């Protein structure tokens, strides 16, 4: 997987966050920004942000996000911070509770309904991590596209002005839905993946609710990776490489079932 240099050392808050369970709280975003710009159809000629490669990206870090500029209407690829801060928030602390937004309540949640109506975005990633816990052992797994191409996650964004400093901060959240058959052995939720043919609709359609379904499991792959991923202090291109699974293999039927249309209609642990 091609990468970029210049990873940023995580803060103590991020390290603490690694101990908190969540729906989707770790992603890879490590390819050339020009590739991500093409995925979100960013307007040509716009300068791209200088973003570090993130093989173990976590909330409170900045990520490349595709969105529509409110004033110009152009598509852009910008750096936004993971953890949405609503415009009415008094401080930044709420961001630790808003790294994910449930697809089922986007249109009604006070936290997210405004952004869902007017400020949807696409988060291009190379994969995301989930964990299996066996006793005291936490084994991370990488979920990535079967064709090794990056995919785009459904997101929402906001601009927030810090009342203490006057600083404007752009933030985002990742939308989650019920897990498909390849993710459900590890978690009952997964990020909403927006297919290439639906990206325009997610950004522009006033009624994109039908896009909030689980992504087809047969278009994804899953593999155990280094337990270094367990700490956000660790970074590097070696982290997504497949490793032996000391926690023991998942039931072989899990993988076979991932290709079953019946399983996709009724995934294990679904809402």
Task: Give a description of the structure.
The chain is of the alpha+beta class. The strands form two sheets. Strands 3, 4, 5, 6, 9, 10, 11 and 12 form an eight-stranded mixed sheet that branches. A five-stranded antiparallel sheet has the order 2-1-7-8-13, with no helix packed on it. It has one domain (12-265): hypothetical protein yedk fold, CATH 3.90.1680.10. The radius of gyration is 18 Å and the shape is globular. It contains six helices and 13 strands. The model is unreliable at 5-21 and 252-271 (pLDDT under 50).
Name some characteristics of this structure:
271 residues; globular; 13 strands; alpha+beta; disordered C terminus; eight-stranded mixed sheet; hypothetical protein yedk fold; 13% helix; five-stranded antiparallel sheet
Give the SSE map:
Blueprint: H1 12-17, E1 27-29, H2 33-39, E2 54-57, E3 62-68, E4 75-82, E5 100-102, H3 113-118, E6 120-125, E7 127-134, E8 137-145, E9 151-161, E10 168-178, E11 189-191, E12 193-194, H4 199-204, E13 220-224, H5 252-257, H6 261-265
Q: Count helical runs.
A: 6
Cα separation of the termini: 34 Å
Number of domains: 1
Sequence stretches where pLDDT stays below 50 over 5 or more residues: 5-21, 252-271
CATH class: Alpha Beta
**Backbone structural class:** alpha+beta
Number of strands: 13
Indicate the percent of residues in helices. 10-25%
Radius of gyration computed on alpha carbons = 18 Å
> Judging by the overall fold, what is the CATH architecture?
Alpha-Beta Complex
Give average pLDDT, whole number: 86
From the 3D structure, determine the CATH topology: hypothetical protein yedk fold
Summarize the helix and strand pattern as letters: HEHEEEEHEEEEEEEHEHH
Largest sheet: 8 strands, mixed
Please report which band the strand proportion falls in: under 5%, 5-15%, 15-25%, 25-35%, 35-45% or over 45%: 25-35%
Give the CATH superfamily: SOS response associated peptidase-like
* Basic shape: globular
């Amino acid at each position: 997987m091609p990468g970029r240099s210049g990873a940023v050392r995580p803060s103590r808050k991020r390290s603490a966050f690694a101990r908190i369970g969540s729906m989707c709280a770790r992603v890879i975003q490590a390819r050339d920004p020009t590739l991500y710009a093409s995925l979100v159809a960013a307007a040509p000629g716009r300068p791209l942000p200088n973003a570090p490669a993130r093989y173990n990206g976590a909330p409170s870090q900045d990520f490349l996000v595709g969105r529509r500029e409110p004033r110009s209407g152009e598509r852009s690829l910008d750096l936004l911070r993971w953890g949405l801060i609503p415009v009415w928030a008094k401080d930044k602390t709420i961001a630790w509770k808003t790294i994910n937004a449930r697809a089922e309540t986007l249109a009604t949640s006070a936290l997210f309904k405004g952004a869902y109506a007017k400020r949807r975005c696409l988060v291009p990633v190379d994969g995301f991590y989930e964990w299996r816990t066996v006793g005291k052992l936490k084994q991370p797994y990488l979920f990535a596209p079967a064709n090794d191409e990056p995919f785009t996650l459904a997101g929402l964004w906001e601009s927030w002005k810090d009342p203490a400093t006057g600083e404007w901060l752009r933030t985002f959240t990742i939308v989650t839905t019920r897990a498909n058959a390849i993710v459900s052995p590890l978690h009952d939720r997964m990020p909403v993946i927006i297919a290439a043919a639906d990206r325009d609709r997610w950004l522009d359609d006033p009624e994109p609710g039908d896009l909030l379904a689980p992504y087809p499991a047969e278009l994804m792959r899953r593999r155990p990776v280094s337990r270094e991923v367990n700490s956000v202090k660790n970074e590097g291109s070696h982290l997504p490489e497949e490793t032996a699974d000391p926690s023991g293999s998942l039931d072989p039927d899990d993988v076979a079932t991932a290709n079953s249309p019946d399983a996709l209609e009724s995934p294990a642990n679904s809402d």
